[in-house]
Amino acid sequence: MSFPFVFLFSGLVFNENVMKEALEVLDHVRLNFSPSGLFALNVTIAFIMFGVALDIKMEHFKDVIMKPKSAIIGMISQFFLLPFITFLLVLVLNPTPTVALGMILIASCPGGNISNFMSAMAKGNIALSVSLTAVATLGATFMTPLNFALWGKLFLKYYNKAGAGSFLVPIEIDFFQMVQTVVILLGIPVILGLFFSQYFPKLTKKIKKPIRQASIIIFIGFVIILLSANFSNFIKYIHIIFLIVLVHNGLALGAGFSVSSLARLPRVDRRTVTLETGIQNSGLALVLMFNPKIFPPELELGGMTFIAAWWGVWHIVSGLTLSALWAKKPLYQPAVR
Fold first, then answer.
1. pLDDT of 65-120, one tens digit each?
2. Where in the sequence is the domain holding 319, given as residue range(s)?
3. Which of 96, 136, 308, 327 could pair with 23 as two cysteines, CB 3.0-4.6 Å apart?
4. pLDDT tens readout for residues 119-163
5. Do 301 and 169 touch, CB atoms closer than 8 A?
């Protein structure tokens, strides 16, 4: 049985049926890249992860071992709590299957490549942020496919049993194909980046900032290209997409802050864990969506792709806004005399 879910935002009310009708339209939107476009997107993500690895040093892995509490909480928040909360959210929202799977895939990805910058801006624990990025990026080679396979299959099973109808083209989530893709896009570039920074430290110092800036600009460019091809549909239904991503991203940030507060981490660490949980690698999600070996071309994944693309834009806005607010707020209250 499906229960009505109501969004209230800017004086507009959307019930579940209205939302679902709109999302079904997006599902039929074809967002096909040419082979050369898909190759360029893959290269871009690999380039981004190479740039992320330039900031990682072997000491960061040692820091996780020597001071494990904050790192463990961060990993739990990112790879266990966020996918679980996302699964509960899609059960409540009951969107179309592709939108739900898009949300689950986003939640299964590791942190985004700008989380370290945001932690520094928010006066968070930069060493912890980089350590979490290092461990999460390598861990994602297994955890991303595992989480998507687990929660995705659970959702599809629930969806088919709930009387909502069966998905027109059944999705067989190929765990090993996802592992192979994630290893190529994350594992190899990160290992290359680690070795590059280890053996060419002077050159690394010169190029890591330009690489980070260029990678963000290139990725945003890809998102714009994706959306511009179907701009009229995107503008028509942006209010639905915006609200779903707003709620999802808000829950992600809230989950990171809540679990780190319950664990009584220092405030500086809470800020970092919050941002690491709320800033996800949506570029990786897009690459996986366009991989024909994972999602066959005959599937209509417009809703899934729009969710991932808009997340890539919105988490930059929300993360920078939260970081700016925290930058103005002192970490410790002055002693009262």
1. 777 888 899 999 999 999 999 999 999 888 888 888 899 999 998 887 678 778 87
2. 14-327
3. 96
4. 878 888 877 887 787 788 778 888 888 899 899 888 888 877 765
5. no
Sorted by sequence, the CB contacts under 8 Å of residue 201 that are 6+ apart come out as none
Cα–Cα distance measured from residue 271 to residue 275, given in angstroms and rounded to the nearest whole number: 6
Cβ atoms of 237 and 25 within 8 Å: the answer is yes
Type of residue numbered 280? Q
d(CA 119, CA 256): 13
Q: Is residue 7 part of a domain?
A: no
Helices (H), the chain: 16-27, 35-53, 58-66, 68-76, 82-93, 97-108, 115-121, 126-161, 175-182, 188-199, 201-228, 231-262, 267-278, 282-289, 302-327
Token duo for residue 127: 């060493």
Angstrom distance (rounded) from CA 272 to CA 2: 37
**In whole angstroms, how far apart are CA 278 and each of 47, 102, 321?**
22, 16, 12
Task: Check whether 305 has a pLDDT greater than 60.
Answer: yes
Contact 260, 73 (CB under 8 A): yes
Structure tokens at 105: 């895939």
Tokens 């090993």, residue located: 176
6 belongs to a structural domain: no
Please report the DSSP string for 80-102 in residue order: IIHHHHHHHHHHHH---HHHHHH
Instruction: Please check whether residue 35 is in contact with residue 109, taking contact to mean a CB–CB distance below 8 angstroms.
Output: no
Chain centre to alpha carbon of residue 27: 20
- Decide if 48 is inside a domain: yes
Residues facing 120 on adjacent strands: none
Higher pLDDT, 35 or 137: 137
Task: Domain count for the chain, please give it.
Answer: 1
From the number of C-beta atoms within 10 Å of its C-beta (0-12, 13-18, 19+), residue 293 rates as exposed
- What is the reported pTM? 0.78
Residue indicated by tokens 């991503």: 245
230 within domain boundaries:
yes
